[in-house]
Amino acid sequence: MVARKFLVQHDDSNFDVEYDTDDGLEVLKFQLFSLTSIPPDEQKILGGEDGRPISDDSDLIAIIDKLRLVSINEEAKEKVESSANHGGTTQNDDIVQSDEEFARMLQAEEEALLLQEFVAGKDKGAMEGKIRPYVDTVLLYEDPIRQEAARKTVPVDELEEKALVALAKEGNFNPSKTEHDHYFLLQLLFWFKESFRWVDAPHCDGCGNKTVHQGKGDPLPSEILYGGSRVELYRCLFCSRITRFPRYNDPLKLVETRRGRCGEYANCFTLYCRTFGYESRLILDFTDHLWTECFSHFLGRWMHLEPCEGAYDKPLLYEKGWEKKLNYVIAIARDGVYDVTKRYTRKWHEVLSRRNITTEPVLSDVLSHITKERRKGFTSQVLSVLEDRDRK
Ligand SMILES: [Zn+2]
């Protein structure tokens, strides 16, 4: 046992901490919690001249007397603010980081990976089971009948006109095809958002009044036909009639019903994107959300599109705006599946600590296996184009 006295600096305050090295780091963290109210799992204790954080592996007998305590949450907040002050756009522009910050984030990433090795299963099944159904869904977007049904609902001339007006407003009266396509896609998004209806509880089929959730119902054959195997039931507050709300998975049906929640929005909108020839991905966020990405030749990269909000190219909308604690964000396209999580976070080390379904190597195995399967028989020329696009 070695009794030590530390001087711990946090913000503008200093705290004296007496501590027994046999107790381990966890006890030190609880002592600091009682002094600063920063929970142990949000503490980062910096102890070296080079600013390295103290970890379970650190030699608590040898470290210096003066320590600095940082709250991970405050740190993340500062980082977002400072990047906003740098006039950063929402695309993944790199944050200006000190070597110290960088070292700490690397350390946190290493720790998260170690934890993952320890707690995550090595079984591929759980991950594969989550992704596979969406691979089937995106293949529906290639069906000419579904595309034709979608196309019929779009006021194409009107959107063309609006795209040209938007370009003209920017002084571009003679747009290239690439520019035109990009602006048309945005108009398609805005139109879609207005033409689709969000439904929490549907109005009564009989009298149009408000309803309340009543439970689950058995799907009818006509509902199953369009992937509506989950049926929610709602009871009218006025006439007590039961209204069904089947959660259709087939975008052919959604083109007609034009209502639902984020799953229906993203599913149907991605069909529209494919209908107009955009390379598209359905984006599956494991914390219960879906959206779309299209490859913009105008930007030279994949672009985020949020059909529920009509927002685009705002990949930090979820983590920063909605304060989501993301873990896995997987892009699903007709020719492969990709882990795009890093596009949607500025806190990769924190995201990593929540990725416990399986290990990173197993995840990457599952994704590359499905991608290979989808690309079977492709020529090497096509493959190299796709692989180049994957990286953007
Ligand atoms: Zn009613």
TrEMBL record:
Which SMART domains does the record match to this protein? TGc (SM00460)
The residue ranges of the Ubiquitin-like domain are: 1-60
Give the GO biological process terms. glycoprotein catabolic process
Q: Which GO terms describe its molecular function?
A: metal ion binding; peptide-N4-(N-acetyl-beta-glucosaminyl)asparagine amidase activity
The keyword Metal-binding is annotated on this UniProt entry: yes
- Per the record's keyword annotation, is Secreted included, yes or no? no
Q: What does the UniProt keyword field contain? A: Metal-binding, Zinc
- Membrane spanning stretches: none
- UniProt GO cellular component terms: cytosol; nucleus
Cross-referenced Pfam families, in alphabetical order?
Answer: Transglut_core
Its family? Belongs to the transglutaminase-like superfamily. PNGase family.
Q: What is this protein called?
A: Ubiquitin-like domain-containing protein
Q: Which organism is it from?
A: Liquidambar formosana (Formosan gum)
